[in-house]
């Protein structure tokens, strides 16, 4: 019984994360300002990371968790670099 509840909740979570990724992609494309586009990119990588985590839970493979960690690290660095570029006009001082 609990295995079926877990399976259905993972499927539901993956569908909701896919919908959230679609909304973030729309914000990334249509954002009226650069700040909105960066926020859309930040949301997109967080949702991608969470989707990989749900795939990892579903399959039981540790590879998905490692990929999610790599996405989190690269996404954080990209967000910080883009934000710094918007604030100062340069990334490296």
Q: Can you give keywords for this protein?
A:
93 residues; mainly alpha; Helix Hairpins; 3 helices
Helix/strand-derived class? mainly alpha
Q: What is the helix content?
A: over 70%
CATH architecture: Orthogonal Bundle
Mean pLDDT metric? 92
Spans where pLDDT lies below 50 across 5 or more residues: none
Give the termini separation. Answer: 58 Å
How does this model look, in words?
- There is one protein chain.
- The chain is mainly α.
- It has a single domain, classed as Helix Hairpins (Orthogonal Bundle), CATH 1.10.287.
- Helix content is 87%, strand content 0%.
- The chain contains three helices and no strands.
- α1 runs antiparallel to α2.
- The protein is elongated and about 55 Å long.
- The termini are far apart.
What is the compact description of this entry?
With 93 residues, the chain is an all-alpha fold.
What's the layout of helices and strands?
Layout: H1 2-30, H2 34-59, H3 63-88
